[in-house]
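dude i think i finally got it to work??
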Amino acid sequence: MSSDIILKVENVGKQYRLGLVGTGTISHDLNRWWKKTLGKEDPYLKVGESNNRSEKGVSDYVWAIKNINFEVKRGEVLGIIGKNGAGKSTLLKILSRVTGPSAGEIKTKGRIASLLEVGTGFHPEMTGRENIYLNGAILGMTKAEINSKIDEIIEFSGCLRYVDTPVKRYSSGMKVRLAFAVAAHLEPDILVVDEVLAVGDAEFQKKAIGKMQDISNSDGRTVLFVSHNMAAVKSLCTRCVVLENGKSVFEGETDAAVDFYLNNSGSNSSTYTGSIQFNKDEIGNQQVALVEVKSFDNNERVRSTFFNNEDISISIKVNVKESIKNSRFALIIETLNGEKVFVSASNEITKGDITKGLYTFSVVIPKNLLNNIEYNVFVSGAIPGKNYFFKPYKCFSVKIEDSKSKGYNFNEKWHGTVHPQLKWSLKT
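look at this
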């Protein structure tokens, strides 16, 4: 391991047997022990399924994580992102030595401090001050170290008024404030932080992220950070690893990793169909009901993936059950993380009377407007200032790819929610 590498993870995996303690039977435990004594491979590591929490498996053995490999340099802030159940917390527990790996090896240099769960190591009957000494000792601090930093820890936590009150009377936010304050002042070589900061308020999250940036930039220490807050990940992390079903599926720069995570999670679900039909009166009111929404190309083929140099047509089919006047139907496009890109409405063609019957409204999103990411498609219908026929409803998602890649692995990414092709000129 080179001098600038502080953490190296090689083929690390963790296997569990579902629903039971240990391997489940004495015979399995004895079999594992005997194979280990003979210097042979654990027979049960040859079996097991990947960690997909949404599917029913056929094996009792599951790999929470498997074949994880990465290196972390000194002073680097590494983000670990992925959906719930992807294996993030399992990986951090192994790195923190809370549990051991079933396979693989971890090499580290220096002291590791972990903040994995709110109030871990806190005694509810002891005061905040006493718990600072207890938690500090658990993390490896000497009493002299704690004494020299006690005032700084209390001030950073923002719990000065309650520091001599038993922790059982603290809110979850106060507990995580105190726990983070202790861990951050431990001066570890590697600080491991799980999703605990989500419990804190916005002011404390900003303060904690600032502290972690100081730890990395000023002190040259390493931070491993897990969060579902992509804004926090982007502002803090220099590089990210994306986990999915217990496996590492992407490793690279933060912006690219976040784009990969947002644009690939759930991409096999039914939301990526380019078409949705509704049962009678499923969406709507006594005046208008939504019947069907589709996205299609210039050849009227229904699609959910388009190149950025293609027009995208959206059709909205409705059943008008009684005459309406001055109605408005709208197309709303959002990014996968909820940012509104634009809203387009039918004001010009629906300001008059519309009688009973089936109608299909069509709108074209021009080529070279959307960026090479994925978008959610919403539609709504209303009489402005009066009532909704149906409020904005998410129908499906569309994916935009770089036309120059034409399906190859290279797909150039640009920042921003849109990427319009503007007219440039050059004069000498």
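Residues 15 and 63 are 4 Å apart (CA to CA).
im so relieved honestly
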